[in-house]
Design goal:
The strands form eight sheets. Strands 1, 2, 3, 5, 6, 8, 10, 12, 14, 16, 17, 19 and 21 form a 13-stranded mixed sheet that branches. The protein has about 450 residues and is mostly beta strands. The protein has a domain of about 70 residues.
Amino acid sequence: MLLAGLLIAGSLHAQWLYTTNADNTITITGYTGPDGDVTIPDTIDGLPVTGIGSGAFDSNSNLSSVTMGANVTSIGDSAFDYCTGLRSVVIGTNVTSIGQRAFFYCTNLTSIVIPDSVISIGSGEGLFIGTFALCKSLTNATIGNSVTNIGHQAFDGCISLASVTIGTNVTSIGKYAFKGCSSLGNITIPNSVTSIWDWAFEDAGLTSVTIPNSVTTIGIYAFDAEASLTNVIIGTGVTNIGGWTFGRCPNLKNVTILYGSTTIGTNDFAFCPSLTTVMIPNSITSILLGAFASCTSLTSITIPSSVTNIELGAFSRCTSLTNVYFLGNAPSAGSSIFTNDPATVYYMPGTTGWGTTFGDRPTVCWNPQAMNLGVQSNSFGFIITGSSNLVIVVEACTNLAEGAWILLSTNTLTGGVSSFSDPNWTNYPSRFYRFRAP
């Protein structure tokens, strides 16, 4: 049985509306006391105050700070939403759950520390459910080490949020969790996280992101439209990645894909005009529709031998893409995968399925060989032969274990032949040489 009550709290004349629960605990349901700073009492009528109910302080624009009593274990849905004057909150160290919209649109709240006692921040799905969504003055957030789930829209639209510490037990980052947090800059995703939901960091102001190996699933648009993002490393644990995941990131330059997925998804890196470097692992078998479309700064890419399928427009409108290197047999592909690209397709000797064109682009066998190695005119050198007009970069190093290769020359095989010489060869006790594509 629930009992309603009213308490006059001493000289402050603070008035508390509350219910007495069947277990002889108190849940605050309303407040009619003076404006300004409010402390939630530990007890009322000798009974512990364990809950702040749904909507208890809803739309109290004159509330400036809240300090919670030590007995509070739960903060209900919408408990403090639209408290636009609220600047400071001290969450009790025994709180385990914070509900949906609990601090929604607290536009003057500047900092929040979620203690280690808290297990979850919000839950469910719907519009404007985020626990701290649209707290536009929030600059710092610390998420305790017992939190396992950052709920959907948790910090959506917190445009001043510059620093977030995510606890080491978080496994899930919900939909839109940090969407629109355009001041965020950087965030460390802990190794406990296994799933990053759709739109989780869309337009979050990130400059660099590393997806840890613990992550297995990244949702659609998860990092879409990140205007400041320049570098991405995707860990080896990822087996499922949604479409448009890093699409429309105008400053993204470098992508290293380590993940165990077999697919680069639809438009995953589309419309990234600054993208220049992509490393694709041997686990990839399919590159889907428009995966790298309109990456206008991409000049060269290497496709591993594991790739057997490339879908429509995968590299369309990559207007600077001049060199595409395939390490295996010709995959199945549509005729428009290189639409409006100036690319030449290079394939390796001994591979099959290649004609004079691939995806409507000319093909050339990448087959350089070194011949006539020896010393001539006090220089060590050799003749490079191969397909006509191949461009070959020659590099050297003195220790194969260290692998510190340095560029020596760039040679064009005019008529299928070019000569190379190293006048500095006597400066080293030994020197190793290799070819690579430019």
